[in-house]
Amino acid sequence: MMTPFPAESRSRWRRLDVPGVEEARVSRVTGGWELGGALEVEEEGVAARLRYRIACDWAWRTRSAVVDGSADGRKVRIDLSADGAGNWVVDGVARPELAGALDVDLGFTPATNSLPIRRMGLAVGEARDVRTAWVRFPELRVEALEQTYLREGERAYRYRALVDGEVFSARLDVDEFGRVVEYEGLWRAEG
Asked: pTM of the full predicted structure?
């Protein structure tokens, strides 16, 4: 069982493999939780300044997400909404290929890994497959992504996903609330 989430918390991460920094927060709001963040990152030659806001219900299921800012010199805005039962609308268009996803995964931040971690409440040694509405970065397009979370220890998870036919795997170290403090090879919390 995880420690109950505080009413307000903040995180700051630094990217380990490319230039990047993020400031994020999680707040208890009417009806659930809100995650918000702002980051600057440069990956695969794409320099991005992005902000995001995600609304979740009390069970940590994504209900809406907005990403805006700029990437590679162009304006970016992506609006996602979900009914909590796995049905999604992206920029006003129903997206049936995302059916079954309960979580959004913003590919440019470790913040969204906390959503399935909190929602599933896995026991040590337990694994579960999840389907996400993945905002792929640096492409900034939305697609379905099948993922697996294995709780390897009290505060350690193994994350796996099949991306473009290749298995991606990383260890996620979390704090007592399920917030990522180290995303193997990519992000580390500061302060």
From this structure: 0.96
